Amino acid sequence: MLTLLKLELEKLFRARSFYLSFLVLIAFVALMLWGFYTYAARKTGGEAVEQFKYTYESKQYFNGLTFALYSLLFSFTLLLPIFVSMSAGSQIAGETRAGTLRMICTRPISRASLVLSKFLVTALHAALLLLFFIGLNLVVGLIFVGWGNLELYPGPLNLVDVPGKIMRDDALMRFGYAVLSGTWALLVIAALALLCSVVFDSPAQAIVMTIAAYLTLYIVGRVEFFEHLRPYFFTTDMDFWRDVFKPEIPWANLWHYACICGAYTTGLLLATVVIFERKDIVT
Amino acid sequence: MWVKLVLLLLFCLMILGAVHFAQPSQSSNRASSPAVVNALRLLTWNIGYAELEDDTRAHDKDLPAVAEVILRHDPDAVALQELTGKTQLNVLLGLLHGKYHGAVAQQGNGDRFEAVLVKDSRATFIPVALGAQYALAASFRPRANSPEVLVLSAHADAFNAARRRTYTEALIDWAEPRTQSSEVFIAGDFNFELKAANETNLYTDNVKHDSESYSHILREFRDLGRAAGDTAINDRRIDYIFGPPSLEQVGRVEVLRNAAVGRMDHWPLLVEVGF
Q: What ranges do the domains of chain B cover?
């Protein structure tokens, strides 16, 4: 198992897509920064370009922590799930397309171990992506916007019902928690993509199917017609990761949804192992 | 085999964990009614119609039902929105058998009026200019030994969040200095859209404006009806009663969901507080 993991890690670090995902995240942070500046310039008639934190009613509202939080919440909806889908979706189907899966399976290793090692590598990729993205946002926020407390208002981020505040050091700790809770939520996508990677022989098909399923549920979940279906979508349960940014973390609620996401992940992984073990590999 | 067993075990553990940490669902219609000493009962109600109607202002035929709700719940002061004018108010006051005294706001740039009804016959009504709009306040004493109470009936723009923000800022600028001498309550339909989850965009100017307006009010006032849930159709909580943050007791807080008649799209919000 350890040898398998080592081999899969080597493959991950050699893949161009691995580095590409980090580059795109850097570009996204730059885009966010540009968006914040131009937004401020537009709203203040060009008077507050240098200090766009003054666009909000509270003069301390926009700071490095707020910038990082906005950037993270915006990207978590689409950007990070796409990279996780790409990473996981190409794990088995990529080997199939390259013609190496058959050879791997002739080795004295169980197919279940192979699936598990590929999943663990994907999980590591997701955690690294999130860690890098949060770290980058905080550094960019510190340099370009400056430190302060994390002030939260009802409405825009849908985190609080009444205005709240998280002190700076506590807020930094919350970003640390977000690496864990966010990675845990993204593992549902990773497990789904791995299942698709076993079912489909083409990595593109596996990735597209995963993203399609995610987007369909995400969009349907935001349409009021389907409000009663919303609690049954995994996309709704995945939202628990944001709870770490509430002034008082609702721990029971957080653990409840974390367990549901865990059930999705392990259930999908189990199905992947069962299907993969029965799969006739002909390429 | 061991991988499958471990996964199955983890799956079961996750299900058990989810069940263990599940919290009982909370009803959105939580009506708390602890006993309140020196109670002041306030009611706010936009009695206009939904947008689909030709005339979205209050309809005369609904006034007996409105009066019946007011008489049944017996508030000390009532803030009404979207009346057609003084004539309609007089009809309503007649239906209340002289138990209430009231006035409508001055006409601004719209075709509908805010009104305040109070039981206290010595109440004074104060027109409040808020930019191009007018609101109305009533100053009264609910009991002989009570402090002076100021209740303001407000109605913010339904279609433009920036205008709601301007209106709110003017409203707070007017109300803030008066909190020194009176117990100030602001009641009405603010049309704040604070449920960002219902927005198709992740971040909009409208949500930002409403967020800032609401937060601006909460700097000086307390949102007394927050626990009562939605006050209008389509799961919207857009009617509010804001009061002094130092209130000793908040008793009954309830949205009267069976009160709407005709094509009304709002329900009355009733709040009982004690000094």
A: 40-274
Number of Cβ within a 10 Å radius of residue A234: 22
Superfamily of domain B40-274: Endonuclease/exonuclease/phosphatase (3.60.10.10)
Q: How many A×B Cβ pairs under 8 Å?
A: 98
* Contact: A266, B226; criterion CB under 8 Å: no
Residue B115's pLDDT is what? Answer: 94
Q: Are B259 and B47 in contact (CB under 8 A)?
A: no
Strands B183-189 and B149-155: parallel
**How is chain A split among helix, strand and coil, in percent rounded to 5?**
75, 0, 20
Cβ neighbours of A112 in B, within 8 Å: 1, 3-4
Coil, strand, or helix at residue B236?
A: strand
**Closest residue in chain A to residue B204, using alpha carbons only:** A156
Q: How far is CA B199 from CA A180, A224, B202, in A?
A: 27, 10, 7
pLDDT digit string (tens) for B180-235? 999 999 999 999 988 755 555 667 778 878 888 898 899 889 999 988 989 998 88
Backbone φ and ψ of A88, nearest 5° = -75, -40
Nearest CB to A259; choose among B17, B195, B218:
B17
Q: Which of residues 69 through 98 in chain A touch B, CB cutoff 8 A?
A: 70, 73-74, 77
User: Higher pLDDT residue, A169 or A151?
Assistant: A169
